[in-house]
Hints:
The chain is α+β, with helices and mostly antiparallel strands. It has helices spanning about 40-50, 50-55, 65-85, 90-105, 105-115, 125-130, 145-155, 200-215, 220-225, 230-240, 245-260, 295-300, 305-325, 355-370, 375-385, 395-400, 415-430, 435-455, 460-475, 480-485, 495-500, 515-530, and strands at about 160-165, 170, 175-185, 190-195, 265-270, 270-275, 280-285, 290, 325, 335, 345, 350-355. Strands 1, 2, 3, 4, 6 and 7 form a six-stranded antiparallel sheet that branches. The protein has a four-stranded mixed sheet with strand order 5-11-10-8. The chain has a two-stranded antiparallel sheet with strand order 9-12.
Amino acid sequence: MPDPVPVDRSGPAPDLDLGAFSDAGPWVVQPERLVWRRGLERIRTRTRRSVGPLLAHRRLPPVGRFGRVLAGVGTALGPWYLRERGTPDSRAALSRRLRRQFERLGSTYVKLGQIISAFEGLFPDELVQEFKKLRDQVPPERFADVRAVIEADLGRPLETIFAEFDEQPIAAASIAQVHAARLLTGEEVVVKVQRPRVAELVRADLRALAWLGPFLVGRIPIAALANPPALVELFAEQIVEELDFRLEAENMLDLARVFAVTGQRTMIVPRPHPYWVSRRVLVMERMRGFAFDDVEAMHAAGLDTDAILRAGLIACLEGALIHGVFHGDLHGGNLLVQPDGRTVLFDFGITGRLADAQRLAFLRLLITGTAGDVKGQLGALRDLGAFPPDTDLEAVFVDLELDRPPPDPTQMSAEELVLEMQELVKKLLAYGARAPKDLMLFVKNLMFLNAATATLAPDLDLLGEIAHVHTYFLSQHGERLVRDLGLDPTASAVDVDAVKASLLVPPEVERVTFRELQERRRLILDRMQRTPRSGRRRRA
Length: 540
C-alpha cells in the first residue's frame, strides 16, 4: 500500500489547485496515486449498462418483491383507515406509518422517502417532516455486519487500519451508515459503509418500479405530466451508481475541481483517502461545522446566512450550466457550515451530469427566463425533452396564452384556480409535454434551496437576488455565453416584469421577500383545498 503524501503544515495544501478542499488536509490528493481510480471508467460504463436490463419491459411484475411492498404499504394504510382517518391527527399518523413501513421495506424506499422530503411545498408538511427522518435516522446495521463489510472489502482486519472506530454511527441512511474513526497513522476520518444485501434489494425494487412506471402513464393526468417512466429511469441510473463508493469518490474529486475552476471556494469537499476506498467502503477526512439549519448558532458566530445561501445557489447553477456537473442530492443532512462561513458538501453518490446538448439547453432556459423571452424558454424546454422535437412552439405559445400577463391567483376564486390548473394540464398533455429527465435532479435541488431560504434568509429580496445571479453569469461567463449560445451579454438584461410574472407577483410590487412569497402560496393552496367537491362551474 503506498503511503499518503505527507502534508506540509507551513503553507496552503499543495492540492488546492486541483480542488476546493480544506486549507490543510490530513493527506494530499494526487490523482495518479489514488489506487481505487484504476479502471474506474470501465467500472462506470459497466454500471451504467446494467440499468437497461433492470428496466426491461416485463408483462408481469416481479411477484415476490412486488407482493411484499404492497403488503407493507397495506399494513400502513389499513390501521390508519380504520382508526385514525378523519381525526385531527390523521395526516401526521398516516405519515408516521408510511415512514416506518418505508424503513422496513429497505434502502430503495428509504431513498424514495428522502427524495419526497426534499420537495417541501409540494407534498404535505406532515409527510415531508416525517420523511426527513429517513435522511440520517434510519435504524443502523449491527456492528458485526459493519465490521464484516469493511474487512471483506479492504482485505484486512479492522484493527490493522484503524486505531479507533466508533461502533455507534454518526448517521444511518438508505444505502449506508457513517462512523467516526482514527487511522493508525493518526488522521481523523469518517468511514461510510454500505449496508449488507442492499445491492440485491435495490435491483429487485427497480424491477418492480420499472413495471409500475408505464402503468401510471395516462391513468392520472398529473402523473402523466410528471413522466413516471423517466422518473424511474433517472432513479435507477442514480441509485445503481450510488452502490459503488469508488464512483462516489471520483464524483467528490469532480465537484471539487468544478468549485476550484469556477472560484467557488465558499464550497468545499472532503478529501477521499488515497487507498482506503472500495465498492462498499469509503474513508474520507473528517469535517466539522454547524448543521445547515442551525441558524441561531451561525448568527451567534457572526455568519451571514444570506451569503451562505447565495453561494450555494450560484455554485449549484454554475456547476450545472457551465460544466454540466452538480451535486444531485442536496439536503440539510448533506451540508455543514464551517465557522469561517464555508459550506462542506457530503454524500456524492448522486451526482448530476448533463451532456453538452442538455447543458446548453438548460443554460438557454436560465438566460431566456430572466430576460423574459418566453419563446426562447419554450425552445429550451423542447431541447431538454419537455416537448416532442416536432412540437409547433408557436401554437403552444398562443394556446397557453403566454402572450398575456398571467392572472393573479390570489384574486381568483377556488373554482377558478382549480379549473385554470386543469385546463393547463390538459393542454400540456395534448402537446405531449413531459417533465424532462435531465432537469429532475436539478429541480429537486432548487426545491431544497427554496425551503432552505425560509430558514436561512426569509427576508431576502427575491427580485434582487435573481437580478444578482443573472448579472453574475453575464459578468463571469460572458465569453462562454457568446461562444456557446451566441448571446451578447451586454444586450441581455433582466426583465423584472417577466420575473414577477413567473413568481405570480403583481407588476406593481417592487420588492418581494421569500416570507411574503410563501404567504401568497399558502393563500393559494388554502383556497384550492377549500374548493367544493361538487357544483363547480366553468368560467364564462
